[in-house]
Each structure stands twice: as structure tokens, then as C-alpha cells.
Amino acid sequence: MSLDFERNLYSESVKLIVGCDEAGRGCLLGPVFAGAVILPSDFDSPLINDSKQLTSKQRDEAYGLIAKSAIAFGVGFCTVEEIDKINIFNASRLAMQRAIENMNHPFDLIITDFMKMPEAKKPVISLIHGDSTALCVAAASIVAKVSRDRLCEQLDKEYPQYHIGKNKGYGTAEHLEALAEYGPVKGLHRFSFAPVRSSLIKKVTLF
């Protein structure tokens, strides 16, 4: 897909477009992160793509380019406790709202990766496959992913038994095996997620 969706949206009334996306929605642990990015209207780079299509090294390089070239960018997140309280869908949207607020810059339009934002004070385009269609959303996906992965590297040092540096919190076979052996950790794992609840029940039953 071509990352040029927003090209025809620029006008006298739309000069600053925010791309917004999240990372970590399907993980079993850690916060859900979101990125918000305003790129110059003439910005273009082959480095920017849907974060899922890039290697870790490519994402780091792209993140550096975004930080250097963006008019503004911000990061927001929702904690594990918030995810368990308001559910992952609402937490993802709240993380996006926080990313936009933390960007601390005026804008005219928001494009999200298929997320409606009824609380937004500016027009919102909820775009299917936004991270592979709009350049600003792809950039936001990179900011969110790199920010979350860097936290996972830190968490891996605190909880090496879960191999977080490798699985980034996703429910890989290795992660599920660790959950079965050690059980989930309060404040780290998302207890509202079925595999985490299941591992807790099994752990309690075993003892």
C-alpha cells in the first residue's frame, strides 16, 4: 500500500495533520503505548513504514529520523491497572489522547489507525489500515512501538524469567510456559486477559 493518504487533505484550513497509533494492544503485560506525530506536509522517506513491517534496527533508525524531522511528536500510555479497569480498547484510545496532549502542539486534523475519538476537539479520520496507508500514522506506529519496546528491555532486566526482551509481552509459547511455571505478577501482567487469568487459576489449583 502507498503511504500517501494524507497528501490530498492539506489545504488552507488543514495545514497540520496528526497521525496517531498504538502499540502493545495484544500483549499480556505492560502498558499500552501510543504515538502522535505531525510531519511536514512535504516530508517523505523510505525509512517510514508500518512498524510491523520493519526490523528492530530499522525502527530505531526511523524513530531517530522522526524525532529530528517531525514538527511535533508525543508519547502516551495507559498502565496495566488502567487496562484492567477500563479494558484494552478504551485504554488504547486513552493512550492516544494522552499522546496527542503530550505532543503539546496545535493541529487541524487527526488520522488514527481505525480508532474513533469522540472526545477530540478536532476532526478525526478513523482509517482502516492507517499505519500502512498514511505516512503520519506509520510514523506514529513507529514512535509507539519503539517507546514500548524500550520499556520492555527494562522490564526484562527486572523479570528475566518471562523473557520480555524477546517476546515484548506477547503470548508466545515461551511466555505462556513461564506464566504456567511462575504465575503472573501484579502490576506487570494484565489480569483481565484470559491467558493471564488462566495461568493464575492453574497456579492456585496446583498449590
Domain module count: 2
User: What is the CATH topology of the largest domain?
Assistant: Nucleotidyltransferase, domain 5
User: What structural class do the secondary elements suggest?
Assistant: alpha/beta
Average pLDDT? 95
| Gyration radius, rounded | 18 Å
Fourth CATH level, the homologous superfamily of the largest domain? Ribonuclease H-like superfamily/Ribonuclease H
Adjacency order of strands in the biggest sheet: 3-2-1-4-5
Q: Shape from CA axes?
A: elongated
Q: Which runs of at least 5 residues are low in confidence (pLDDT < 50)?
A: none
- Named CATH architecture of the largest domain: 2-Layer Sandwich
Oligomeric assembly:
single chain
Q: What is the helix tally?
A: 7
* Major sheet description: 5 strands, mixed
- Residues in helix, %: 40-55%
Distance separating the two termini: 52 Å
Strand-residue proportion: 5-15%
Describe the structure.
This protein is an alpha/beta fold. It has two domains: 152 residues, 2-Layer Sandwich (Nucleotidyltransferase, domain 5); 47 residues, no CATH class. The chain contains seven helices and five strands. Strand 1 and strand 2 form a beta hairpin. The longest helix has 24 residues. It is elongated, with a radius of gyration of 18 Å.
Which features characterize this protein?
207 residues, alpha/beta, Nucleotidyltransferase, domain 5, 2 domains, 5-stranded mixed beta sheet, 7 helices, 43% helix, elongated
Concise overview:
43% of the residues lie in helices and 14% in strands. With 207 residues, the chain is α/β, with parallel strands linked by helices. The protein folds into two domains: 5-156, Ribonuclease H-like superfamily/Ribonuclease H (Nucleotidyltransferase, domain 5, 2-Layer Sandwich); 160-206, no CATH class.
